[in-house]
Amino acid sequence: MKLSRSILFLTIAALFAFASITFAQDNSKAADNSTAMLEKKIMRTVENLPNYGVFDHISFALTDNGTVTLSGKVLSLGTRSLAQTAVSKLPGVTHVINNIKNITSNPGDDHIRHQLLRTLAPQPVIGGMLQEPNPSVRLIVENGRVSLEGWVANKSQKDTFFVLASGVPGVFKVTNDLRVGKPDKV
Asked: Per-residue pLDDT tens for 52-72?
C-alpha cells in the first residue's frame, strides 16, 4: 500500500512538473510572438510615414520593456518627429528614444542624389528597388558620402549597387550596408 501511494505521489508530482514546464514554454513563446508582432507593427508604421522616401533611412531596436530606440538619417522635413510620435502611439511601446539625425540639404549633395537616381533607377534588375512607396533600398547622401541601406535579394544586386554608386561624379565614398535576404526589422 505504501509503495502504491509513493508511486501515485511521484506520478502526480511528475505531471505537475511537466505541466509547469509546458506552461512556461507556452508563455515564453507567447512573449516572443508578441515581441515579433510589435516589431512588425513598428516596421510598418515607419514604412508608412508620409514623406519617408528613398533618401531616408530609419531603423529601430526594441527592448523587452517596450522601449524603442529609433536611429538613422532622414532628409525629409518632419519625418524625425513624425516617426517618434507614430511609434510612441503603438500599444506595447512604453518609451521612444529618438536618435534619428536630420540631414541638411545642400546643392552638392542634392546633385549627387539626382545623379544616383539617374544612374540606378533605369537598371533593369535593381531599378525597381528604388521605387516609392517603400523602396527596399535607401540612398543616404551626406557631404559627398553615400550610404546604401536596405535589402536586396542577392549578393550580385548588392555589388551592382555599390559599383554603380561609386561611379557617380562627386561621390567621395560609398558605404554598402545593404543586406541580402528578407527584412525582419527596418
From this structure: 999 999 999 999 899 999 999
Question: Sign of dihedral through CA atoms 166, 167, 168, 169?
Answer: positive
- The candidate with the shortest Cα–Cα distance to 150, out of 130, 127, 166, is 130
62 C-beta neighbours (distance < 10 Å), count? 18
Q: Which fold has domain 107-180?
A: Histidine-containing Protein; Chain: A; (3.30.1340)
Burial class (CB in 10 A: 0-12, 13-18, 19+), 161: buried
Residue whose cell numbers read 542634392: 110
- Structural domain spans, the chain: 1-103, 107-180
Please check the confidence at residue 182 and state whether its pLDDT lies above 90: no
**CATH class of the domain defined by 1-103:** alpha beta
The structure's pTM equals 0.78
